[in-house]
Amino acid sequence: MTPPAPPGPRPVPPRRGPGALALAVHLRLLGVRPGMRLMVHASLAGTGLAPASVRDALTGVLGPGGTLVVPAFTPENSRSSRAHLERIAGLDASGAAAFRDRMPPFDPASTPSQGMGALAEAVRTAPGAARSAHPQTSFAALGKDAERLCSGHRVESHLGEETPLGKLCWEGGQVLMINVGFSVCTAFHLAEYRIPKPPLRMYECVVKVNLPEGRQGRRQEGEWTAYEDVALDDSDFAEIGRTFPDSRVRRGRVGGAAAMLFSIPDAVDHAVEWMTENRR
Question: What is the mean pLDDT of residues 165-177?
Answer without folding.
Answer: 98
